[in-house]
Amino acid sequence: LAGTPRSSLPLTQIVDQACREAETYKDAGVDGLIIENMHDLPYTVGPGPEITAAMTVISAAVKRTCPGLPLGVQILCAANQQAIAVALAAGLDFIRAEGFVFSHVADEGIINACAGNLLRYRKQIGAENIQIFADIKKKH
């Protein structure tokens, strides 16, 4: 996405590609999809507002493309509150939360457990309908 070291595509092209890929998966019969900014290497703890804004635009477009498919979002690295906000704004069903329970050292630095703050934030913004699929410990 914009602002990352390897960024080369305009947001409109990323949106179009994400929607095409989502339709392909939907047509293949998947049960749900998750939208991630996985190519934003190297990741940082607490990506900027430009990433959250772009993920909202992409997620809303994918939701319009595949309205009946369960959709979620993860914003790397461990931007779990931002993911809840994106899911709420875009009408998504779930997020994947990295570092939910255990703190750990990752390539991005120290990732602190977020369960308490994330659950309180979800309640505060009225997003209790957004499910949280959580890493108990980092997956890799």
TrEMBL record:
Pfam family, one: BtpA
SUPFAM superfamilies, sorted: Ribulose-phoshate binding barrel (SSF51366)
Domain of life: Eukaryota
Protein family membership: Belongs to the BtpA family.
Descriptive protein name: HpcH/HpaI aldolase/citrate lyase domain-containing protein
Species name: Struthio camelus australis
Lineage: Eukaryota, Metazoa, Chordata, Craniata, Vertebrata
